[in-house]
Amino acid sequence: MTRRAWLIVSLAALAACVTNPRTAAPPPAAGLELLEPILGAKLTADGVTIRVRSSGCTTKQDFAFYIERAAPTPTLVFGRKRIDTCKGPAGAADLSFSFAELGLGHGAQVFILNPFAGESGRPP
């Protein structure tokens, strides 16, 4: 094989690698897979209400929250402290947290970082 032919074959192989990239989902950010998926969230004049999966025993005391205030809009995350062990039918529970409980000013805007599971209960 001549140098010219070898160069052409090498460039063609390199071009094939460049034009056919492998696609893969980016890895989740560290720790985000541990956050409780929520079925919905509502920001009201008094605070934040989240809807989570429940078998009948889920209460507000079963959840902890964390607020990161470094950004212009505070980031809010919710985590389950205790698993709902009731044997009731699968459903949902609405949990309301006032701005005072969250340590935020009245009428604050927040960004909720928890994954959204939708009414099916599974992440999209």
Which descriptors apply to this entry?
124 residues; alpha+beta; three-stranded antiparallel beta sheet; three-stranded mixed beta sheet
Question: What features would you describe in this structure?
Answer:
With 124 residues, the chain is α+β, with helices and mostly antiparallel strands. The protein has one domain. 17% of the residues lie in helices and 27% in strands. The strands form two sheets. Strands 1-2-5 form a three-stranded antiparallel β-sheet. A three-stranded mixed β-sheet has the order 3-4-6, with no helix packed on it. The protein is globular and about 45 Å long. About 9% of the residues have low confidence.
Biggest sheet features: 3 strands, antiparallel
Given helix and strand content, the structural type is alpha+beta
Strand order of the largest sheet: 1-2-5
Estimate the global geometry from the Cα principal axes. Answer: globular
Radius of gyration: 24 Å
**Cα distance spanning the termini:** 53 Å
Low-confidence stretches: 17-27
- Output mean pLDDT: 77
Total DSSP E strands: 6
Helix content: 10-25%
Count of spatially separate domains: 1
